[in-house]
Write a structure and sequence with these properties.
Blueprint lengths: L1 E5 L3 H11 L7 E5 L2 H10 L5 E5 L9 H9 L5 E5 L4 H9 L4 E4 L4 H12 L34 H11 L4 H8 L3 H15 L4 H14 L1
Parallel strand pairs: 1-2, 1-3, 3-4, 4-5
Helix pairs in contact: 6-8, 6-9, 7-8, 8-9
């Protein structure tokens, strides 16, 4: 598998590279540090399986780079990587032809899930950020029924769902109209109910419950 990783920050590239290396081996990762080098590397490697591209890099402003890339290389699956959690940015990226949108704050386990979905030919959009109609999700779906027996309140179940989607505390607070300190209290209760000590453990536990519910 060959993946092109484009980000203008070396430390961020190294961190994402570590995540990409956890995909099914062998994984060859090609680096690019701006839009011009992204185009050059894509020309040099016509057998790319995926391009993971930072939304804001030197060479183009905003969504222009993504649009230009999709126009030039329509057959290469593209995932946008961004620090922005704006539903507006997500919609624009999808309209420009991206097959996935991943916040840089997304936990590793969720990032891998997203990348695998795109590699399998699907589209990944964080449900916590956009429901396709410009509105944000706050409803706990039926597949979270197993969690309802864990002693969590309705609000904590809503937080758990968004947590499982890789949402940050700030994003959860905005969507559920609560303070970040309240979100932290709910997350602590979720950790306790699931007998885990961190967000990754919680995401994995929730995934197991939803798969087997």
């Amino acid at each position: 598998m060959k993946i092109l990783l484009a980000d203008d920050h070396p430390l961020m590239r190294e961190g994402i590279r570590q995540v990409l290396s956890q995909l099914e081996p062998p994984v060859e990762i090609i680096d690019a540090h701006d839009y011009p080098s992204l185009f050059v590397q894509t020309e040099l490697h016509s057998d790319l399986d995926l391009a993971v591209v930072d939304l804001n890099m030197p060479g183009f402003a905003g969504m222009q780079g993504i649009t230009q890339y999709r126009n030039r290389f329509p057959d290469i699956p593209l995932v946008v990587l961004s620090a922005s959690e704006s539903p507006h940015a997500i919609r624009n990226a999808l309209e420009a032809g991206a097959l996935g949108y991943i916040s840089k704050a997304t936990p590793t386990v969720m990032m891998l899930t997203a990348l695998r979905q795109v590699l399998a030919g699907n589209i990944f959009v964080p449900a916590c950020l956009n429901d396709g109609n410009g509105e944000l999700h706050t409803v706990v779906p039926a597949d979270f029924e197993a969690l309802q027996h864990s002693g969590l309140t309705a609000r904590q179940l809503a937080v758990a769902r968004l947590l499982a989607q890789g949402c940050t505390n700030k994003a959860i607070a905005g969507m559920l109209a609560m303070s970040e300190s309240t979100v932290k209290v709910h997350i602590t209760a979720i950790f306790r109910a699931l007998d885990v000590s961190n967000r990754t453990g919680a995401v994995l536990a929730i995934q197991r419950l939803t798969i087997h519910s």
